[in-house]
């Protein structure tokens, strides 16, 4: 007999719950089966491929990704969560406006099948937000991108276009880096 | 005042004389047995047999555990750091490079280095070289090892200087340590032993006690053979028969653990993972059974058993387990084959010392290609997601639910481990 849990959370800015849930429910199942947020992709189910990465916001500022397939609602109860559905903004008419990371992925043709893309978007978003709080020297950007995206597996395009897109966003957004990029390296 | 100075002077004089005597005793490395064969006139078959035996000795003695090149390329070119309370030592180059390795060693030289801890020029080796265990290597095995080592590819990689604090950086001082703690080199004699192969593999070549036997303040092995010790920041568990029985080992599981790196009791972790890949995974089933039998020492090892809870598990620990662990390890700790270990039979939560449990949860474990096709997926590091209090709650939950231990790990103890201040 599995116990029950009284679950509440902020998901994409919306208050969710209280919901009476099985205490061993994994977050990806809550998102897909209970809340119809199907953008978070279940792939390996073992926390290895990061396709299901979602963002958890720290109340003290800061954010991190966790794999929704192996992170239980028991851990996320009471927390503030963002999924791929919550990344784009809205214009005055309520139309979606892609985030700089999402826009860069499109412009760089970063993905084909897109199955891994929500995870890459969330990881890159967390990275950009971290650099907003704590800029890093330009020469460290590639290492930072590698570290942030390394846990994410893509089986279509390889990784170069994802990496280039994130590099583009970071180097062209004021305030994320310290120092200057050599002219030859500056993205077009 | 003058009287006090006289007494002090006398004490200093006595100390100097005592150290001098110990130094003189320690300089004497004892007799070197003659070579087992005429190495200059080996027949082809004999040479082939010795090379095969030498390769077996190198694996059973796990030379690569310390002498491997962490940058890759050679298992024998050295450079691996070994952190001790006295500072950091680096494994040396034991390829047959004449400039940087042991290419100039004779078979006698190798025996003296391995069994007595003395290099050809009389230079003492630090006892990180496990000559207190290897001292019983047979001369035939030492000769076979020499032949095999001299057949390996020389790598001209310079040795990295050790980084030891004073006074441990005074190498001749090891003679004093040797006088007090080095057992006399005495080739292994199987006569009258119940399980000579097991004893030879565990106590001599395998040098298991170098990590699993407690050390005294002088960092020498004590008489509490295989009773468990914290070394290089991890607990090398108690391997005595009653301890193995208490943790639910069976002879079959010990063999599987050494052969594949995995059994219901756990997976090769910390410094045991390279031991698997360089050494035990290459040993025959007969060898591994001999090891298991020797460790059991006639005790019937029961295998995994349901253990009574060590205490009433707290809600907070249960919630943390479901939220962070159960996705891979299962609600009831059943695990997933070939990806996540079962926790209901895992021994890590059964140790009195929570060091390994805390470190594994905090640091995670890289994915592992174990042996014989067995593998384990990576375990994430949760150190950044848990406060020290939450870590204590989770550790206590695991100890009580499956470890048969009380949930008595304090937040302060967790903090101490995570800050690297563990006082062992």
UniProtKB/TrEMBL annotation, chain A:
PROSITE patterns: 2FE2S_FER_1, 2FE2S_FER_2. The keyword Metal-binding applies. Pfam families: Fer2, Fer2_2. Residues 5-87 form the 2Fe-2S ferredoxin-type domain. InterPro entries: 2Fe-2S-bd, 2Fe-2S-bd_dom_sf, 2Fe-2S_ferredoxin-like_sf, 2Fe-2S_ferredoxin-type, 2Fe2S_fd_BS, Aldehyde_Oxdr_Iron-Sulfur, Beta-grasp_dom_sf. Keywords: Iron, Metal-binding, Oxidoreductase. It comes from the Bacteria. Signal peptide: none annotated. The keyword Metal-binding applies. PANTHER family: OXIDOREDUCTASE WITH IRON-SULFUR SUBUNIT, OXIDOREDUCTASE, IRON-SULPHUR BINDING SUBUNIT-RELATED-RELATED. This is (2Fe-2S)-binding protein.
TrEMBL record, chain B:
The keyword Transmembrane applies. PROSITE patterns: CYTC. InterPro entries: Cyt_c-like_dom (IPR009056), Cyt_c-like_dom_sf (IPR036909), Cyt_C_IC (IPR008168), Cytochrome_c-type_DH (IPR051459), Membr-bd_ADH_cyt_c (IPR014353). Keywords: Electron transport, Heme, Iron, Membrane, Metal-binding, Respiratory chain, Transmembrane, Transmembrane helix, Transport. Residues 49-153, 193-299, 312-402 form the Cytochrome c domain. It holds the Pfam family Cytochrom_C. Its cofactor is heme c. The chain crosses the membrane at residues 7-26. The keyword Cell wall biogenesis/degradation does not apply. This is Cytochrome c.
């Amino acid at each position: 007999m599995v116990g029950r849990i009284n679950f509440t959370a902020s998901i994409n800015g919306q208050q969710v719950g209280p919901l009476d849930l099985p205490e061993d429910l994994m977050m990806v199942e809550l998102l897909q089966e209970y809340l119809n947020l199907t953008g978070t992709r279940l792939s390996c189910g073992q926390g290895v491929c990061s396709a299901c990465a979602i963002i958890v916001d720290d109340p003290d500022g800061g954010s991190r990704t966790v794999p929704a397939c192996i992170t239980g609602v028991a851990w996320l109860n009471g927390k503030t969560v963002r999924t791929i559905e919550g990344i784009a903004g809205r214009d005055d008419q309520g139309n979606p406006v892609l985030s700089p990371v999402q826009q860069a992925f499109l412009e760089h043709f970063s993905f084909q099948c897109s199955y891994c893309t929500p995870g890459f978007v969330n990881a890159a978003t967390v990275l950009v937000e971290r650099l907003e709080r704590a800029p890093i020297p330009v020469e460290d950007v590639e290492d930072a991108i590698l570290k942030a995206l390394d846990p994410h597996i893509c089986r279509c395009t390889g990784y170069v276009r994802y990496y280039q897109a994130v590099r583009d966003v970071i180097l062209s957004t004021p305030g994320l880096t310290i120092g200057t990029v050599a002219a030859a390296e500056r993205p077009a | 005042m003058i009287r006090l100075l006289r007494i002090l002077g006398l004490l200093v004089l006595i100390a100097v004389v005592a150290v001098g005597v110990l130094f003189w005793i320690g300089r004497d490395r004892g007799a070197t047995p003659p070579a087992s064969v005429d190495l200059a006139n080996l027949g082809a078959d004999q040479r082939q047999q010795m090379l095969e035996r030498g390769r077996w000795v190198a694996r059973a003695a796990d030379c690569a555990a310390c002498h491997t090149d962490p940058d890759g390329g050679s298992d024998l070119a050295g450079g691996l750091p070994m952190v001790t309370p006295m500072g950091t030592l680096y494994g040396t180059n034991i390829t047959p490079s004449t400039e940087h390795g042991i290419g100039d060693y004779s078979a006698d030289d190798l025996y003296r280095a391995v069994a007595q801890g003395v290099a050809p020029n009389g230079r003492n080796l630090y006892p990180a070289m496990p000559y207190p265990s290897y001292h019983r290597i047979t001369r035939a095995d030492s000769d076979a090892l020499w032949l095999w080592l001299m057949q390996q590819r020389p790598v001209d990689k310079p040795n990295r200087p050790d980084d030891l604090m004073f006074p441990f950086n005074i190498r001749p001082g090891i003679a004093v340590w040797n006088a007090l703690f080095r057992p006399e080199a005495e080739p292994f004699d199987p006569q009258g032993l119940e399980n000579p192969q097991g004893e030879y593999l565990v106590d001599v070549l395998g040098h298991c006690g170098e990590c699993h036997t407690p050390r005294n303040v002088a960092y020498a092995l004590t008489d509490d053979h295989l009773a468990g010790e914290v070394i290089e920041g991890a607990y090398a568990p108690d391997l005595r028969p009653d301890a193995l029985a208490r943790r639910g080992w069976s002879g079959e599981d010990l063999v599987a653990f050494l052969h594949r790196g995995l059994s219901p009791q756990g997976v090769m972790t910390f410094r045991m993972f390279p031991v698997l890949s360089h050494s035990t995974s290459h040993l025959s089933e007969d060898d591994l059974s001999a090891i298991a039998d020797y460790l059991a020492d006639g005790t019937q090892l029961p295998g995994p058993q349901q253990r009574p809870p060590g205490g009433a598990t707290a809600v907070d620990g249960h919630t943390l387990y479901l939220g962070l662990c159960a996705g891979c390890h299962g609600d009831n700790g059943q695990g997933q084959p070939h990806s996540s270990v079962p926790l209901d039979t895992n021994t890590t939560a059964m140790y009195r010392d929570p060091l390994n449990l805390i470190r594994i949860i905090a640091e995670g474990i890289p994915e592992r290609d174990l042996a014989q096709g067995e593998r384990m997926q990576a375990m994430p590091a949760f150190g950044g997601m848990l406060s020290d209090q939450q870590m204590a709650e989770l550790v206590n939950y695991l100890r009580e639910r499956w470890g048969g231990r009380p949930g008595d790990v304090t937040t302060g103890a967790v903090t101490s481990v995570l800050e690297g201040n563990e006082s062992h």
